Amino acid sequence: MNERFQSVLGRQNLAPFGKTTKPCCEQTVKVAFILLKHFSLTSFSSAMDALASASLREGQPRFEVACYSLEGGPQSSDIGLVVQTAKLVPTAMDHSLVVVVGGHRVRLAPDRTHARALRQAAANQAIIAGLWNGAFHMADAGLIDGQMCYCHEDTRALITEYYRTVKVAETGGFAISGNFGSCSDATYVMELMLRIMSRFKVDDSDDRVEEIRRIHLAARPFEAPQKLGTDHGPKTVPKLLAVALALMEKHIEEPLAVEDIAGQVGVSRRQLERRFARYLGAGPNRYYMELRLTRARQLIVQSNRSLTEVAIATGFVSYPHFYKRFKEIFGVPPMVFRDAYELCDQVSNQRYAIASGF
User: What architecture is domain 25-202?
Assistant: First the structure.
């Protein structure tokens, strides 16, 4: 869909439905979650959300999930909610991704079954990740000797005491090196999973990962507020451009003239145009129009407002003008887009359920 977008807003308007533009074979990636007793439900659900969201579009990897525990049956999370699991059988670990889910209430101790299962997965070249304090069992299996791992601060001393050859990070965060990844708490699960998912590339999965990141990961207070993805990675925009973007966001229904925006920012129109082209991939007029159509798309799929109301709310002087611009950008008229979204959303729900194992 985003071939018709000139600016970086194209990534925000990737179709969540329909087939990819390039022919490709849909691959199935088998994922095993090893749930420790009293595992962090937040960490587990964040990891599941990343995998299931990536599976929604046809042509993208379909992550098929199975959950395991030592005994099998219902496994209790840290807040008492249970997840049905199969009994962990080390010789049956033929998955491409294995995730050990720990948690604050998990009591850690060396365990042969966990160690054998992880070694078997490693022998099969699986990617293995430890969430919260799941890296303890990776260390117990001898998989991360000499490597840096992240775990919750309450577990650092324990891992250091048991496994002196493992480098334990002294701060919170996440890391992935080779086939082994870890994170310190639920805050970093989504980012770790997105990095792992990028290993299973099909068609435009890089852009899909960026879109999942945009949706699920709000900017943290210590991060720059204006980071926009480009083909060469994220760029932090200058302050004056951030001010211009904020003005556009504030004036969607009654768009400002580019000259007025330049005047409020304190630069000439030509200077503003150069900055937009450099950082956003399109001139201010084009970007402003794409921004308004992005808002229109959001209103069309997330509300029951009439299309005329949507046109007015996004600053178009008439419905025919809105209709023409929307079709130019998205390839179909607004009503067709809404109908197609609702129809394909039903298919996506089925794919989400399959991806989640529910």
Answer: 3-Layer(aba) Sandwich (3.40)
